[in-house]
Write a structure and sequence with these properties.
By secondary structure, the protein is α/β, with parallel strands linked by helices. The chain is built from ten helices and eight strands.
Length: 222
């Protein structure tokens, strides 16, 4: 397949944001009198937006009497501390540079709020990412295809030559809903077994393998 456009998920795919999300989640939980969650628990909870992260982490979910208060605390704390330990995964910047040099159109679609998505992409990727789209009021959150389709439109891209790259079951469903093939990466927030159970058809264990896939090499693991 001659791909010309690559859409990336952000958290767990390009950026390792887990430590900052873990800290923010536990700040909110302890502030409302609930026990903290482990890093591994938070890793399993992320992927559907920060509200769902908290709903999975707090006892009783959205029915918790202080859920709204905890969510506001989590959001405000994370906005102020979203770059403490966050960094691109090893090999991601060379991958993006290679793709840019090869002429690919690159975009990001995320369930993070739109403002932070754009700010994080500017801070860590500069002009490597042409279009970055996060959660907006008029869009349905992933796995709905809204953000992916908007990114393709903004890039002026042909969906028939686009690939979606993500680290989660949510990303597999997003790609499917947008009519795009999906390359699932194993270094992020979901284990290989979860990805395979969700229907992964191609797996990459490193950013170098993403480039190899685009160059026509067959990846094993599915």
């Amino acid at each position: 397949m001659n791909y010309q456009t690559i859409l990336f998920d952000l958290d767990g795919t390009l950026l390792n944001t887990l430590d900052d999300l873990h800290t923010a989640c536990n700040y909110a939980l302890t502030a409302v009198g609930e026990p903290p969650r482990s890093r591994e628990e938070v890793r399993r909870f992320v992927g559907n937006g920060i509200g769902t992260l908290l709903a999975r982490a707090i006892p009783g979910g959205t029915d918790h009497p202080r859920y709204g208060e905890a969510l506001a605390l989590l959001q405000s704390y994370y906005r102020a501390h979203d770059r403490v330990n966050t960094a691109p995964y090893e090999g991601v910047l060379p991958l993006l540079d290679a793709l840019t040099e090869a002429g690919y159109r690159l975009g990001v679609v995320s369930n993070k709020p739109d403002g932070p998505v754009k700010a994080l992409c500017r801070a860590y990727f500069g002009d490597r990412i042409a279009v970055a789209i996060g959660d907006r009021p008029r869009f349905h959150r992933k796995p709905a295809p809204d953000a992916a389709l908007e990114a393709l439109r903004a890039l002026g891209a042909d969906p028939d030559s686009a690939l979606y790259v993500g680290d989660s079951d949510v990303d597999i469903a997003t790609a499917r809903n947008a009519g795009l093939p999906c390359l699932s990466v194993t270094w992020g927030f979901r284990d290989r077994e979860v990805l395979l159970a969700a229907g992964a058809t191609a797996l990459a264990d490193s950013p170098q393998e993403v480039l190899a896939f685009l160059q026509g090499e067959t990846l094993c693991g599915c």
